[in-house]
Amino acid sequence: MHxxxxxxxxxxxFQLLDLQHDVMKDVGVISEHIYKxxxxxxxGDRPRQEVERHALSKSKARRAQAAMKHPDTVIxxxxxxxxxxxxxxxxxxxxxxxxxxxxxxxLRTNSR
Length: 112
Prior knowledge:
The chain is mainly α and 112 residues long. It has helices at 18-26, 58-68, 75-82, 86-92, 101-108, and strands at 4-8, 34-38. A two-stranded parallel sheet has the order 1-2. It starts with a strand and ends with a helix. The relative contact order is 0.17.
């Protein structure tokens, strides 16, 4: 199973996800496993908000959730790919792919 993140750094409409999406599909990632992130940086038009920091981004939490649902997922490799420790991974996502409280909190927030 392949999972992919595609991202643009500005939500101004000038940067598009289309090319990245096409590349992901070309390498075998199905559309349901492609997670799109569009964010503006701290110098964007919106005021900066103080938010709780999470060890995982929303897209990485979704990737972890999808991967953990598959029994053939190698946890060590997933952690390496996401850049987190096993304990951090398990704080957000349970062994069966279910979101834990910290994961649910992360996905409810409006932060990046």
